[in-house]
Amino acid sequence: MRLYLLALPPTDSVTEGFLPAAQRLGLDVTVITDHAEPHRRAYAGLAVVPEVVELDPRDFREVISFVSRHHPPAAIFSNSDHLQTQTALAAQYFGLPAKDWKATFRAKNKAQLRRHLAATGLDTVRSAEVAPGNDPAELAELDIPFPCIVKPREGVASEDVALAENLDQLLAAARGIRERRPTGGLVIEEYLEGQLCTLETLGDATTRHVVGGFRTEVLLPTFIEKLLEFVPQHPQPVVDQILAQLDEVGVGLGACHTEFVIQADGRARIIEVNYRAIGDRLDLLLPRLLGIPYFELVLRVHLGEALPADLGIRSGLLTHSFYLCADQAGTLTTAPEATDQVIDGVELSYRPLRAIGETHPLHGTNRDYLGVIETIGPDLDEVRRVAAEFLEAHRWEITP
Question: H helices within 154-268, ranges in order?
């Protein structure tokens, strides 16, 4: 059986998660990407190296044409934020299990998500859209609450997300984003205060499971995630609110990573729906944390298999993931090497996310990450302590 995997840049999720899982399932894999050579380098050390084909995965028509003349597909899959709709359309063409393309479009297009949720009556976030080509100056004529958020309509992670306290800051941020993304739309929306969290779900054709979530802290005003801790079960009223909204969006098949805030009155309000697995190596924690073959389960539902009624999730373990973030442009000259340790019963791993000797500007996004400290154990105070001691014992230096 052949799995076609659509991708843009190589990611740890694919290299360390989905490709080894595909091998364990006995699948032949063809990776379709617009730049093949970085993928060939990334996969060179794998036990089974997938076929890599250079083709624009953003064009579902070309994907369909290629698959039609290549090997028959058992599944067409992507974990990319940018490729969910194309993947859904290609999979549907071949009669394969697929996400609803309308749901993937709503999730990716942040303005459409806001309009859709408002139309359902479940949640209305005050927002506005600047269409591609329109002058951001039109925002001066709108009734926009401050503080507010401005971000790319089809953005990902924290890239080009800005907090504006007044109209001058909003216009400056919007014009800056438009200069960097001249063909993209912008979304402006009210700032939702509250505890930032995530909900991780996994579904097959008929059933959706909640596999847990994370509590998140971010750096302001860039909204870069700096700390995430696993939450086995958010309060049920909160989960019910988010699931009701995901139902209206159309989220079901496969993995979904939803970011939301819990406000002081218990109201849960979605920030964005990422219709794929959580990233930044947190998905790679899930098999160890939950005791389930997470990546295999995701692939199995795209092969048309049903999930078990009970996933067999192990409870009792907690995590602390702390991201080291550059605070200036320059060359990374000092940083620890990757390590895996067990300290006082706590599993600790450190993974560099930037190599010593690399020179980078300051992006104001998660591309500024230098490395991540991950700890897993049964006691939250202990996993925090072990992570803090590792942080204190090591140095990360950037030379301008």
Answer: 167-180, 236-249
Burial of 208 (0-12, 13-18, 19+ CB in 10 A): middle
Start-end of H helices in 55-208: 60-69, 84-93, 101-108, 110-120, 167-180
Q: Cβ of 362: how many Cβ atoms within 10 Å?
A: 15
CATH number listed for the domain at residues 2-98: 3.40.50.20
Other C-beta atoms lying within 10 Å of the C-beta of residue 9: 12
E strands present in 107-207: 127-130, 148-152, 162-164, 186-190, 195-203
- What would the pLDDT profile of 264-314 be if each residue is shown by its tens digit? 999 999 999 999 999 989 999 999 999 999 999 999 999 999 999 999 998
Q: Tens digits of per-residue pLDDT, 204-251? A: 989 999 999 999 999 888 888 999 999 999 999 999 999 999 999 999
**DSSP states of 32-78:** EES-HHHHHHHTTTSSSPPEEEE--TT-HHHHHHHHHHSSPPSEEEE
Within 8 A by CB and 6+ apart from 2, the residues are 27, 28, 29, 30, 71, 72, 73, 74
Residues in the chain: 400
CATH code given to domain 195-399:
3.30.470.20
CATH of 126-190, one of 1.20.1300.10, 3.30.1490.20, 3.40.50.300, 2.60.40.1270: 3.30.1490.20
Q: How far apart are CA 166 and CA 183, in angstroms?
A: 25
At residue 55, what are phi and psi to the nearest 5 degrees?
-165, 145
